[in-house]
Amino acid sequence: xxxxxxEARFLSNAEAYTFHSVSAFAVSLYQWELQGNVIEExxxxxxxxxxxxxxxxxxxxxxINCHYSKHGKFNTGCVYNTCRVVESAYMDFLEKKTTKEGxxxxxxxxxxxxxxxxxxxxxxxxxxxxxxLDKQAENTVIYVSFGTTTTFDDEQIxxxxxxxxxxxxxxxxxxxxxxxxxxxxxxxxxxxLPEGYENSVDGKGLxxxxxxxxxxxxxxxxxxxxxxxxxxxxGGVSRMEMESFIAHITR
Length: 251
Hints:
- By secondary structure, the chain is α/β, with parallel strands linked by helices.
- It has helices spanning 24-34, 58-71, 84-97, 128-134, 154-166, 197-200, 212-231, 237-249, and strands spanning 16-20, 75-80, 104-107, 141-144, 170-174, 205-208.
- It has a 3-stranded parallel β-sheet, sandwiched between helices. Strands 4-5-6 form a 3-stranded parallel β-sheet, with no helix packed on it.
- The protein is elongated, with a radius of gyration of 25 Å.
- Residues 195-235 are annotated as: Disordered.
């Protein structure tokens, strides 16, 4: 905890820095509520964001606040496990709050690889396909999938789409090209269905992964992934901040 660095003030050539393992957004939100501000939609915080109230016991909150008030004055700068590509607004917010104190902030991450957690069976939030399937009678839904090693041309896709619609049967259709296992591949083919197809089978069928919104989300995620990945590469924003941090502590 912060108390362990108190002795650093007695060393003429030593400085203490705070490492935040959480996001700059989380730190900003905590600081915002600590000032007694109400969480309202603005340029920093989205609408209906849950409050931190009740997340910690009073004892834990008091312990943290005590450390900050007693030992925060020994802090020279803050290091965050994030990158400005994603959290520049929150880094700017934190920097403005400590301008008078002369505390510097560096976004040097991400330090750790990101993994997608496996959702447990007890989780209340399910994939929309499963939610829809649970509402259907037993043995009334056709599952259509040709595996991840099969591809169709546009004409074949349209014919299959029409056939499923005209069958009047309920279905879930998993439609995608051979899986290349590379989410950063910008050349991946996008299968197109006939215009208005999803509306024409509404309530009868689901074609997974084909809506414009989901395509846009996937494209956005790919772009963000490339940006974050590039931030730690040579010339990336996090790499440059690391160089700035090293230059600062070795000045």
